[in-house]
Amino acid sequence: MKYSYYHILLPVLLIALGSCSGPGDLTAIKSDVLKDKIAGGWAGKMIGVSYGAPTEFRAQGRTYEDSISWEASDIRGSLWQDDIYVQLSFLMTMDKYGMDAPSKKFQEAFALAGFPLWHANMQARKNFHDSIFAPLSGRPEYNIHADDIDFQIESDYIGFMCPGMPATATATADRIGRVMNYGDGVYGGIFVAALYSEAFFESNIRTLIEKALLSIPRESDYHKAISDVLLLHDHYPDDWRAAWMQLEGKWGDVDICGAGSPFNIDAKLNGAYIVMGLLYGEGDPLKTLEISTRCGQDSDCNPSNAMAVLGVINGFSGLPAEMQEGVKAIADSTFIHTSYSFNSAVESTYKYARELAVRSGGKIKGKRILVKKEEPVSPDLEISFPDLVFHKRISVFDNEGWKFRGKWKVHKPETGRTGRPRGQSMVSGNAGDELTIKFSGSGISLTGNWYRDGGRADVFLDGSYHRTIDTYYDYAGQQHTESIWHAVNLEPGNHTVKLVVKGEKRKESEGTNIYVVSATIFKKEKKKNETHKFSFEQ
Questions:
Q1: Which of 181, 210, 293, 405 has most Cβ atoms within 10 angstroms of its Cβ?
Q2: pLDDT tens digits for the chain (538 residues)?
Q3: Which of 200, 166, 204 is nearest to 33 (CA)?
Q4: What is the model's pTM?
């Protein structure tokens, strides 16, 4: 479907007509313009996630080159997307406990919700039920997904309610993002929120990206990855695929969660794809959507963020007419697992934006909101997995380092509720049964099954008690093959892990079983992105 694209000067005109200088250091934006921009952000989120949904993770370590079929009526699919319903649970938390609610309340909101979760969010839910609360729930010691994309795709509402106030957006994002992430994972959410915050008063895409970067530590890998996209755009201004190839060579294997596979859910690589879509899309909605989608990996989330940026810049009224109509057709339909529709989400976010503007030193004068525009503030540098690189994966059926004592037996693949077979494992529920693995490296993750009959085990590292794990999981109809225990950032060398089955369970569990599938071993060395040079730098 072809659209009649809005004129490139529209963002500038909107700002010129909708905002003006106020008294002192205050900048005015008309109430209707503010609401229009917030609506544009939410609409962009819905448009982007519906556009990319059919391609999600269908291109890993490569660009997506198949045809993309999308019509404005497909926006209806956004009503069932986790990109939206998870963050709306956070918005509902604000409604109930206020904007200053502690991070534990946000963790509780989705931990007890009936919707499915994945990656860092899923681990944060598991941590809550294991009494590991925010901010510990997002730390790399307790969440091997600490650098993953989760908060990056859920921080939109924060930016939408912070017009011209990136410092306020950062403070809010830093508190909530620690529910499920740490380091680059938190920075991804901060960066995206800052993009929106700045986009209320900045229409130049490159300038906008450069401003948003000021909200995260310059020394972080996230900052470096986004800066590399800017550099690549300078060298390949008309060839996004050439830029993508160079980026993949440097940043394509940074993911700890998907280590050893082409699957990459890392926030910084997927954040780089957001920025590629924005730069090479040149303000054109469909071009922006297509490029951020074809970059691959989490290819519904990235166009969703990119399109939301255009939505804030241009407002809902500046979107192509067909897109506006697609959103309007479902504007009062409720997003699954929430009490919000598009219209009510816009109204709520607009209400919070007004409140935050006043709280941050602004004023409301009739039909104008006077915003005290803020300078960006960067949080302290955090590195989740310094110099941690994938080494190898060892199945429990390999004769490499494993030793079993007791009545362990083979657990054959089952078919889960999704219809997909689950991984074969070794299983025991007998108190005192032991599993030992010896390895050489600087980190290890034991992959196993979180099942409804999961039990407890004590884990010892190099002869010392490390912690007790609980492998029960049956929330929102989900069970997982997942990291059941990990220890990273160890001193390089030889290590021994011993797991002792306790024969105990929480009351909800149907059994005391411990399932173990494999061990992922990490080594300490400089990451590829620290040593790699682009072809034009060599």
A1: 181
A2: 333 333 333 333 333 334 444 434 899 999 999 999 999 999 999 999 999 999 999 999 999 999 999 999 999 999 999 999 999 999 999 999 999 999 999 999 999 999 999 999 999 999 999 999 999 999 999 999 999 999 999 999 999 999 999 999 999 999 999 999 999 999 999 999 999 999 999 999 999 999 999 999 999 999 999 999 999 999 999 999 999 999 999 999 999 988 999 999 999 999 999 999 999 999 999 999 999 999 999 999 999 999 999 999 999 999 999 999 999 999 999 999 999 999 999 999 999 999 999 999 999 999 999 999 999 999 999 999 999 999 999 999 998 899 999 999 999 865 555 554 455 899 999 999 999 999 999 999 999 999 999 999 999 999 999 999 999 999 999 999 999 999 999 999 999 999 999 999 999 999 999 999 999 999 999 999 999 999 999 8
A3: 200
A4: 0.94
CB atoms within 10 A of CB 400: 13
In terms of DSSP bridges, do strands 409-411 and 402-405 run parallel, antiparallel, or are they unpaired? unpaired
Give the angle subtended at the CA of 220 by the CAs of 88 and 189, to the nearest 5°: 5
Taking the C-alpha atoms of residue 501 and residue 426, their distance in angstroms, rounded to an integer, is 12
Report the distance separating Cα 501 and Cα 491, nearest Å: 27
Q: How far apart are CA 73 and CA 293, in angstroms?
A: 18
Domain region containing 65: 10-370
Instruction: Choose the final residue of a domain: 370, 398, 423.
Output: 370
DSSP character for 419?
A: S
| Within a domain: 538 | no
Q: Does residue 414 fall inside a structural domain?
A: yes
State the Cα–Cα distance between residues 517 and 108, nearest whole angstrom: 30
Report the 10 Å Cβ neighbour count for 366: 7
What are the CA-CA distances from residue 114 to residues 28, 307, 428 (Å)?
41, 28, 30
The structure tokens 């879509």 sit at: 277
Asked whether residue 432 falls in the same domain as residue 334, the answer is no
Ramachandran angles phi, psi of 510, nearest 5°? -90, 0
Q: Which residue type does 99 have?
A: M
**Residue 247: which H helix or E strand, with range?**
helix 240-251
Question: Residue 139 is encoded by which pair of tokens?
Answer: 């730390």
87: which DSSP letter? H
CA dist 115 and 39 (Å) reads 25
Q: Which of 370, 398, 430 is the last residue of a domain?
A: 370
The verdict on 93 and 227 lying in the same domain is yes
User: Whole-angstrom Cα distance, residue 359 to residue 168?
Assistant: 10
Query: 455 vs 112, 122, 492, CA distance in Å?
Result: 20, 18, 31
